[in-house]
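Final report, closing paragraph on structural work. Over the funding period we assembled a curated collection of sequence-structure pairs, and we close with a single example.
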Amino acid sequence: MDKKLSLKELMTAYQRWVINNPSLVTDVETVATWSSYFIAGKINKSPIVSELVYALSKLLSLFNDKIINAAYGNNASQFSLQEQIKLWLTIVHYCEVFVELAVKYKCGTRGKWTAAIIIQMFKCSSALVLLYRFKDIPIQHPPIPALQRKKFTETVESEDNRDASFTLKRSGRVIRRVEGAPPISLRDWQPIKVEDNSIPSAIEIRDLKHAELIHIFKPIVHLGAMKLFGTKSWKQWLIALGLDVASFQLYKKHMNEITYEQRLEISRRKLSLVLYLLRSPMYNSYSKRVIENFLESTSNKIPAMSFICQPIIQYLNHWQDIYFYMWAM
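Its predicted structure, as stored:
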């Protein structure tokens, strides 16, 4: 009983420390995450250990975000089915590379591919539930993003001000109530923020669903193409790229109608297209030579940069083989 009580007290003290020191907690998490990169190549089985450290640091950050959310009274929806699915998808997102490496070390390449298929089947089926039951379009990556802790308090305060304003019937202009105004010293004299609750049309919803459906099935299709054509074939590379482009084209039709958060996620996906340069066979045929020549010339011109460039050149092939899988993006 005493042991349980002491653990409970320790947990309470940790939660209080996280709530009172969010900036320090963020710094600790950042150091833990970056340490995973420095471990690579320094010790035996370094890829597995590095990914384990990375996964644990991200899971710790997720846990701390939950503590801060609960402290501000935003934990009511954390027990819903939608949030539980997002939570498990986020956990899998942080741990999938570690699981693949660990299974490959124990069971070989066949075991790694089996683990990759199981993980992607789970992610695909869970994403379909979010898409069709909860109309979650597009699904964020990861589904529960890291909490922007500095802006979190401001967001909570803006949500508390929803009842502090009213809308004029004829003009639609939003007016702040006198009792809802903050003290003069805290006013920023900016217009009150109002959420856009416009309802998309049926055609728009259909196109957005099709776009997200293509994105969800892309990893499964790509794994099948790799099995059929081989991991170094241009066909599997072009199939995956073609699916991404098709998804973006459907989203492009409705970029003006979707929310800022939705546009942000689509922009992140577009930026990830750059990673196709680091995936086989593009990497082996063209990108590798260009990147290595650039790093070597930079290291020669700026000697101080050799501290960064040389490790990248040394481990580039190793990182490309581990991290730049299309289904992990």
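Strands lie at 165-167, 174-176. The chain is about 70% helix and 0% strand. We thank the funder for supporting this effort.
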